[in-house]
Amino acid sequence: MRTSIATVSLSGSLTEKLTAASRAGFDGVEIFENDLLASPRSPEEIRARCADLGLAIELYQPMRDIEAVPRAEFARNLRRARKKFELMRRLGADTVLVCSSVSPLARDDDALASEQLSELADLAQDFGIRVAYEALAWGRHVSTYDHAWHIVETAGHPALGTCLDSFHILSRGSDPKGIEDIPGEKIFFLQLADAPQLAMDVLQWSRHHRCFPGQGGFDIAGLLRHVLRTGYDGPLSLEVFNDVFRQAEAGPTAVDARRSLLVLQEAVGTVELPAPVVPTGVAFAELVTPDAEPVAAVLGALGFARTGGHRGKPVDLWQHGEARILVNTAGAVRRDGTRLAAIGLESPDPAAAARRAEALLAPVLPRRRAPEDVPLDAVAAPDGTELFFCATGRADLPDWRADFEDTADAPAAPGVARVDHLALTQPWHHFDEAALFHRSVLGLDAQESVDVADPYGLLRSRAVTNPGGSVRIALGVGAAPTDDTVHAQHLALATDDVVAAARRFLAAGGRLLPVPANYYDDLAARFELTDEELDTYRGLGILYDRDAGGAFRHCYTETVGRVFFELVQRDPGYRGYGATNAPVRLAAQHAQRPVR
Ligand code: MG
Ligand code: MG
User: Fold this and answer.
1) For position 487, what pLDDT does the model report?
2) CA of residue 196 to ligand 1 center, whole Å
């Protein structure tokens, strides 16, 4: 099926939007009127640009407040329409979107609406144009798709059909099953947008919170299946009004948009992609740092030992239990500080995992970063984190550890068992994209998104996990474009006994994040902990949480660059990440920052 995107969904000038849509692989666009009005280029130039970029102009939109009005008003509307049809002819657009009227002049009169839309279609036909009539969810008298279809059906005009918009249909709670009653050839256009489930005014909801399919709470695939059963063969077109996309760069947004359509098409069976290969564990986390010393000090205090050195590069392998951390000083930029730059994911089939990632438009990284390196399949996540697909310890596939020469050091006796989770900070405008990426590309499950209060803002966090919980990635973002060095990345290490691990860390010279006494007073009120337990936690700075599945005890190291470590004791049934404690942690971290 053809794919298309409304220019209103992307930021920038009209030509920037067209370039981004073309580069992301869309077949066509909807030209949003205001984008054309604001462009210094003539309709003929835009038409030529689209042709050069291989983009069809699938729709011109919107035409508003046309139908069911008094005769004199309708005459004015026809005059306005004629001007727009002339423009559309210059542009080479053959379908116009007409939204159901919101005008106070409009009458609640379906017969009049049919009659006037018929007249409009007569005029359109003279220009070789088709009229696609869409019910706005907040239309004055016509606000549901079946009502709009009833008016179109009554008109019985060959140049008049309906436009279905998943947002307008699903935000009203309409049953999309009725779409199957519409003949496919009378569905002139299909616009797709998802949205989070919000209880708010539908107009504001639509204008500010639409998102790409798979990023909200609507069943877009279910709706699309009904549409496809009618025999509809027009484009799948994304029409997304969203405050974040208006400010984000058009190129990455267009790629995110195309990926969402690929995932949707896979779900309904119109596109076949390589099957997801779900990662089974964390092979390593890689820290890039301009100065290995402070990182080495923290890792050493945590009980990690430097077990290997890279044969060709300044990269050390640190290990404790099954937790492996690479400390890389090559190519680090001092200004960036220490950051979590790459994750090795254990994959049952690394090559197949990379094929799926590539099919879903993830940038593929060179298999060898240096000629002597073990070839590894790797892709970049939207935040730039490099994801390596690994097969640690498998005889049939290259083992990344072959790049490392063993050192004499051996990891200290018990403490850390493995990586519990990784927390990655997303650029603020890539949050929904990141969740869709990790779900669709890696086959991970996304948990509900949670909002966490930060003393200087709001932090949104959403975890993606594999079914067994051996891969857990918490995606976090500030709610606004702020100094995101505050919201550092972290690496959480699983231990069977966080109290013992914290004590060993302190005894080895490590420093834990101090937690205010007020937190423990509250803990005493919320949970029935013994005084001794509470004193222990208070003394060390251990935080506590519990859900239906069990308890979660955790503490944090000081931050090194943009990274800190968390020691975690997780009961097997506990699903979360201690989100209720995050505001206290964030406040404590702010308090530790040097005054600016
Ligand atoms: Mg629409
Ligand atoms: Mg954490």
Assistant:
1) 60
2) 17
Which ligand lies nearest to the CA atom of residue 557 in the structure?
Answer: 2
pLDDT the model gives residue 325 = 97
From the CA of 141, how far away is ligand 1's center (Å)?
17
Residues 143 and 155: their CA atoms lie apart, in Å, by 18
pLDDT at 368: 76
The CATH number of 3-268 is 3.20.20.150
Q: Which ligand is nearest to the CA of 136?
A: 1
For residue 460, the model assigns a pLDDT of 84
**Cα 212 to Cα 42, 149, 195, 514, distances in angstroms:** 30, 25, 8, 41
Residue 466 CA to ligand 2 center (angstroms) comes to 17
- Are 135 and 172 in contact by the 8 Å Cβ rule? The answer is no
Domain boundaries, the chain: 3-268, 281-591
CB-based burial of residue 52 (10 Å sphere; 0-12 exposed, 13-18 middle, 19+ buried)?
exposed
What pLDDT is stored for residue 596 in this prediction? Answer: 42
pLDDT score for 594: 56
Task: Give, as one character, the DSSP assignment of residue 269.
Answer: T
pTM score: 0.93
**Nearest bound ligand to the CA of residue 30:** 1
Question: Of 481, 448, 476, 472, which Cα lies nearest the Cα of 461?
Answer: 476
Dist. CA 481 → ligand 1 center (Å): 29
SS3 480: coil
In CATH terms, the superfamily for domain 281-591 is 2,3-Dihydroxybiphenyl 1,2-Dioxygenase, domain 1 (3.10.180.10)
pLDDT below 70 — which residues of the chain?
411-413, 478-487, 594-596
* Distance from residue 492's CA to the centre of ligand 2 (Å): 6
